Amino acid sequence: MAEINLKSIAVEFPIYDVTRQSLRHEIIRIGTGGVIRQSDRDFVVVRALEDISLHLTDGDRLALIGHNGAGKTTLLRILAGIFEPTRGEVTIEGRVAPLFDITLGMDREATGFENIRVRGLFLGMRPEQIEAHTEEIVEFSDLGDYIHVPIRTYSAGMLVRLAFAISTAMSPDILLLDEMISAGDANFIERAQARLSNFLNRTGILVVASHAPDVLRDLCNKAILLEHGRVMGTGSVDEMWDLYREISANSGAIKAPTSGAA
Amino acid sequence: MAAPALVPGSRDLARAFLDLRNGFLDWRLWGLLGWLDIKQRYRRSTLGPLWLILSSAIHVTAIGVIWGTLFNLPLAEFMPYICLGLLIWNFMLGIINEGCTAFTGQAAGYITQMTRPLSTYFYWVLWRNLIIFLHSFAIYVVVAIVFQIPITRFTPLALVGLPLMLAFSAWPVLLFGLISARYRDIPQIVGSLLTVAFFVTPILWKKDMLADRAYLAQFNPLSHAIDVVRDPLLGVAPAPESWIITASITLVGWVGTMVLFSRYRARIPYWL
User: Fold this and answer.
1) Measured between beta carbons, which residues in chain A are less than 8 angstroms from residue B184?
2) Burial grade of A103 (CB within 10 A; 0-12, 13-18, 19 or more)
3) What is the ipTM score, two decimals?
4) In order of start, what are the domains of chain A with their CATH numbers?
5) A170 near A97, Cβ under 8 Å?
6) Residues of A in contact with B4 (CB under 8 A)
7) Which of A20, A72, A84, A225 sees the fewest Cβ atoms within 10 Å?
8) Residue-wise pLDDT tens for chain A (262 aa)?
């Protein structure tokens, strides 16, 4: 049973530049009693999300639509539990798996075998689950004896196949994707597609941020449109995509959002 | 964030302790990451992790002989002393220095993309350095045998002293890791202070060499934390004040660290 409940959450981001993220400024501030500085905040605060409420249960496939910087990634990180919101309530039930970078945590100097274990543990898989899936992962990624060799010797294709196979071996309750995960080289895509749809079907809740309407239409049964960290609308993927196009057309590229994290 | 209250709410405290607990339960991950670090360091070298022991052995022998000669002390007395001092010091130095980058180093990428507890990366630093320390400890076993260090009734006290020294060295890892995530000068400050600390702490010299200025070592908490491990292993009893001071600083340090960790834990991902 998976459930996500966000109650009017807000996220404010302090952005420290290189010089500001240093003690010198604090010391100067203490020394000068804050007189010299003009603002009383020594960093820029970006409101990345504002008043977001969201309720998702099993079977929900949510598309996040919006410009770069609209707050999609920040929202995904809230759902992943990486960021705790500055205001509001987050309740998440079920095991969450963020799949933002499928090779993250893999160690170039370690063997394919070792990396299955590292990556599996990072994803929160139980050791016995990793054990149970190892053979199947090796087989699917088609690495043969290369599995016993450090992955720095792998070709890009081999690496992606392995990373893809490991990540799609788990069965999370809630899956978060920032752009669709890629399956790798061409002759692999067909097998990968089957594995991917099986993987996606296993998860209770899916949240995908993407700029590809076809992908979103394929995967999702509802959508929200984010703009400047606010929810501009909720509805079907088609409705929200049209609204997104409309807003983009009206504001043009000139008023592209300037705040928030990409 | 302009001037937030330093006192954490009870919910923050609960979450901080939960983080420490869940991070500990993540031992399979940090355990593996720690081992891979060690393996990686010596991958493709013929001796492999044996270098952990060998490089420390060279270090200890060279310094032991030179300093023993400089101070005109019998090697049998000075060598075991200097060996233990250096091994413990190297552990403290490594753990505290690496603690400063516990969240900002390699872990930063993991923290912003994965859902492991933050303390997982704290335990990772601890574990990696503990592996190195325990390996290099083999040298002392050899030294103790060669110089016939007696096993006395005080020797078992090391079993209390060692965990105490670990707890004493662990809170700065979490504290400096946290502060360094926000203020990136901290690793440099800590690094320079530790370099100085090495010379003002009785490692290469003995307290009684200070003669009537022995209080200089007495005021040094690092000196006491080293003593609660070194003295029992040399077969003597640590001074009572060494236990009291080490334990008190451990306690106060952890309380302070937990207050700050509770208050700012959730901000760490934002700072990275």
Assistant:
1) 21-22
2) middle
3) 0.85
4) 3-95+211-251 (3.40.50.300), 99-171 (no CATH)
5) yes
6) none
7) A20
8) 899 999 999 998 877 764 555 666 666 655 554 444 444 456 677 888 999 999 999 999 999 999 888 899 999 999 999 999 989 999 999 999 999 988 898 999 899 999 999 999 999 899 999 999 999 999 998 898 999 999 999 998 899 999 999 999 999 999 999 987 776 667 778 888 889 989 999 999 999 999 999 989 989 999 999 998 999 999 999 999 999 999 888 875 544 444 444 4
